[in-house]
Structure formats: C-alpha cells, structure tokens
Design goal:
The protein is α/β, with parallel strands linked by helices. It is 33% helix and 17% strand. It has eight helices and eight strands, in the order E-H-H-E-H-E-H-H-E-H-E-H-E-E-E-H. Strands 3-2-1-4-5-6 form a six-stranded parallel β-sheet, with helices on both faces. The chain has a two-stranded antiparallel ribbon with strand order 7-8. Helix 6 links the parallel strand 4 and strand 5. Helix 2 packs across helix 8 and helix 5 packs across helix 6. The protein is globular and about 50 Å long. The protein starts with a strand and ends in a 9-residue tail after the last helix.
Length: 206
C-alpha cells in the first residue's frame, strides 16, 4: 500500500516561523514570486504532518509493506519542518519513506508525470487544518485514486467518495477562522479502511 502526504503539486513551499514575515511582505518585495510560493508563512502551515505520520506509523505496524510517499523536501531550509527526522521520531523506518527528488521540486515537476504518480497510490492522504480549495484532492480522484481528507472547509465537498476525518477545532489567528486538527485515531482508521477497500475502488467513478 502506498500513502502520500502532499504539500503542493507544482509550487515551492517554504514555512518561515517569523511573526514579522508574511506572504504579503514577501510578495510585495518580490511580486515575481507570487505564483511560485504558497501562503504558509508566519507559522501558517495547514498540513498536519505529525498527525499523519503517527497514524501511518500505527498503520504500518499492521502492514509492514506500506510505503509513505511525500511530495515535499526532506529538510527544507530555514525553520522548515525536517520530515525525515519526524518520520524517525514516529518510528517509521527510512526505507518506508520516499521523497520527490529535490531537483524536481525546485525546477517543477512536468505536468504529464503527476497523473501517473497519483495513479500509483492506493490512497492520497491530505490531512489539512483547512483548505482554500485543495487541488491535489481533485487531481488524485481524476487519476482514479481515492483520498483521505479532514472534515473541514472545501474538503467536505471535494471528497464525497473518500474518507473524511473529524478532529478538534482551533482558532487560527492569521486567517481569523476556525480550523480543524485531524484526529490521529481517525486517520489511522481511514488508512485501515482504505487498505481493506483497495481492491474494490471504482476508479472510473472517482
């Protein structure tokens, strides 16, 4: 079984945990970067890697052939999250984690590759705190791969045929809105259900 956590399919993603830095201040100084950065600055990261890694770790104890594929850098510069270290802390072996080559992340993955990549997964995991839209969710289903999402914002509408995980609400001061922290137990159960249903997925219906 292959599961994936996706930061973003085609943009560079950097997280700077500096309250004096924001997406707005960066793009005002460098407007040419507006289309190449996602708005995850000032601690405004909306992907819950820690919950997903812990849920996957629990799942892998039952299915030791499972692979976690991450479309992200192992160790981003600055104060970005070290995903390789997080995986080890969560008890996920190094040989059970795969990363997209960093050269492709920096230079851009050719569009024709993404449908193929999506089609190789048994399930795509996108446990976000919130989504403005959630393009990978749509792209994955278009490639015939079901998705695990958090029961929040746009994900509720975009993922009617996959698994939606509930969680605890918390206030996001940057967006001035309620976000949802996905349940680790819920993610684990979604992984288990996706594994059980992997042979019965109607890829045409997705």
């Amino acid at each position: 079984m292959t599961c994936t956590g996706v930061e973003n399919m085609r943009k560079l993603v950097y997280a700077f945990y500096d309250p004096n830095v924001s997406f707005k201040t960066v793009t005002e100084g460098r407007p040419d970067l507006a289309g190449a950065l996602t708005d995850c600055l000032s601690g405004d990261v909306n992907k819950d890697f820690s919950a997903m890694f812990e849920a996957f770790s629990r799942f892998r104890r039952k299915h030791d052939d499972a692979i976690l594929y991450l479309h992200s850098m192992k160790r981003p510069g600055g104060n970005g999250l070290d995903l390789a270290a997080l995986a080890r802390v969560m008890g996920i072996p190094d040989d059970a984690v795969r990363f997209t080559p960093e050269f492709e992340l920096h230079m851009g993955v050719e569009p024709w590759k993404m449908p193929y990549v999506f089609s190789q997964f048994d399930v795509l995991a996108c446990p976000s705190y919130g989504e403005g839209f959630g393009l990978p969710t749509v792209e994955s289903q278009a490639a015939g791969t079901p998705v695990i999402t958090t029961l929040c914002s746009a994900s509720e509408e975009l993922n009617p045929l996959g698994w939606q995980v509930d969680g605890e609400p918390f206030w996001n001061g940057v967006h001035k809105a309620w976000w949802i922290r996905p349940s680790i137990r819920g993610l684990y159960e979604a992984f288990m259900q996706a594994h059980e249903a992997r042979e019965d997925v109607d890829r045409e219906k997705l």
